[in-house]
Amino acid sequence: MPDNIPYIDFSRIKFLLTDSRNLRDPESTLFFALDGNGRSGEDFIDELYHKGVRHFVVKSGYESQLDATFIKCKQPLQLLQQFAKQHRLNYNGKVIAITGSNGKTVVKEWLFKILSKHQYSYRSPKSYNSQIGVPLSLWEIPLQSKLAIIEAGISMPEEMYKLSDIIQPEIGIFTNIGNAHQENFLSLEGKTIEKLNLFVDCKTIIYRKDQSISALLIEKHFSDRQLIAWSLQDANAPFYFKINKVSHQLTLFENGKELHTYSFPFSDLASIENISHSIVAAITMGIAPQNIDVSNMEAIAMRLEQKQGIQGCSLINDAYNSDVLSLGIGLDSLTKLAKSKHLKTTVFLSDMEQSGIESDDLYPQIAELLKTKKINRLIGIGKNLTQQQEKFALPQQEFYTDTDDFLDKFSSENYQKEAILFKGARSFKFERIIRLLEKRRHQTIMEIDLNALRENFTYFRNLLLPQTKIMGMVKAFAYGSGSIEIARTLQQQGCNYLAVAVADEGVELRNSGITLPIVVMTPERNSFEVMIQYHLEPAIYSFSELQAFTSVALETRVENYPIHIKFDTGMHRLGFTEKDIDILCETLTSNKALKPVSVFSHLSAADEEIWDSFTHKQISLFEKIARQIEANLGHTITKHILNSAGTERFTNHQNDMIRLGIGMYGISSTNRKMQPIATLKTAITQIRQLSKEETVGYGRKGVLKQDSRIATIPIGYADGIWRALGNGNGYVLINGQKAPYIGNICMDLSMVDVTNIEAKEGDEVILMGEGITAQIIAKQLNTIPYEVLTSISQRVKRVYVE
Fold first, then answer.
1. Which among 187, 312, 560, 704 has most CB atoms closer than 10 A?
2. Residues involved in catalysis
3. How far apart are alpha carbons 307 and 221 in whole angstroms?
């Protein structure tokens, strides 16, 4: 299809990009100039070129003078799909594909949470289920993963054939059928048939037997496949779930035989349906029913997000799609919430833009549904709803032509002790209304940018030979960033090992579904049994430690349990020494319980040029020790000594693996501009005007030399803010300007001077991030970035963005 394909080293292409806002690593990106939202993708080429992108896919007639590589073709989208298909063909793991009208993303996320505890799994990000999203998802599949879960959706006929061809799933899950995008299909049956095209090559299909349309079509068109049906109504179905809403339990039966009872934190029908799909799929994948834990499942933020509102109100944000089926699901959650809190019920509803049903038929259905659910109040927003308002007869109802019309007449006094459901099409931007009704909180958060983490990881990956492994350091709460989410992201990125400091950190990761090998760098002897139970691998640094772990290994009757041998090459902290090699190897070769899988050491000063000669001596000694170890043991062993700084500055000595720590969190030893992944932020609680010679804070340390405006922010040394920054030694950023700390920093509060800044209460305050990095703060404190990052208290909420 391409007119010409210039040479591209595809081993260096890590990312396929269609949205310029999602750029990660320019040097390893191939941009597809796709048209959309009234703009040509080619409009963004100059911007991306100046950011470092050098590879582009464009339409045949495109011409440019830029010094870049251009692949020209008639249809860039088809080429994107072809590239993704080729990556899929190179993948040897199993692929599960999920489709349906509702629940696709939730089933994907919940099934991933179940299966990832048992094997290295991948799932498509967010709701990447379209003609563009699916190929981007497929390209991201790590080839070493054992399982990929891919979500697929369509809005037009013939689309699913294309997705089926590139996904090529072995197992299919059909969630349900509803009215979303119905306007492009003649009937629900027709749309179901289109969606089922995803499963043309599937060997196994999982579906709910109670969904009559889809169940009949699946059984008709796929009778030669392994069909796995489950039910919430038919006790004679192959799998049957009996619901106990009082105890929040589901009891599963297979062919009439009770298998297991699951505790599940939700009782709404949509969640029960989604978790049932997930459980049956997990069993199909070979997971024993009793090994499936669904007790800690969390709501997926993209649907039914609950917030605390003003004046005793509770809010449910379901303003992401709009059809009759999902409205019914949302109303179920609303009535449950209202009953539990003794609140009246209010529904914000927009026009339904893609229902596929004529207004004269659609809105009477909605009116009847609201009446059946005994909704107290309706606020309808949209021209169609306004025109159809006579169809509704609720106790209270009001109609507005659009969101701006509502906001012009909004008064917060009109909302008291109500459970409020927001159900609307995206174009109505109900989030503007939600912000007005949400209870104001001066929230202090640490925002973690996972895309920045991926970009930093990729930078280091590109420094290495293809065969070199990476151990990601996630000890100390992942340097303050939150170990679970960081570990999940690293696992998705193809990281080979993770490292923690103590066993408890590793246990937490295992309980969160992390399946990568995890090394415990400083294991404590009383945790050895737990380490074996959770498949955590110890770093062994002394003969007494080796003997102690061997004793536990023999007691638990394990064989060839992986251990990592640490040598001291000049750090003089922990480790065997060169003179220990002969006795150590003799001990290891006679030990059937343990198997050394790596040998490693720590560099003392790889980030300081003044000590480069010493670093070279350490590396030379380590490589000599490693050769002797391999010779004495009689087999190859993974060797690693480079940390982040060492990887940047001594790349030729990468050996078999490097340990990536501070670098992937955004700190470079070579002053390369990295992406800080953490932003610590809060908001101004109060601003007051104070006169010259007044004092601020404990001990009256903050003496004002002029009339000043002083802002108080809700964060202090108990949150990890460094007390030494007080009294003008440090600053925060407010509206892009520096506001110095004034007076002593308190336990829960700090004060800053905003005299020369246009600031108001509620304005955002950046304490660490872009413009005030961990390196800058470290210099202010005469310390190192490590201490700055790891000192932020875990009581500060971590929020993850992509």
1. 704
2. 475, 698
3. 44
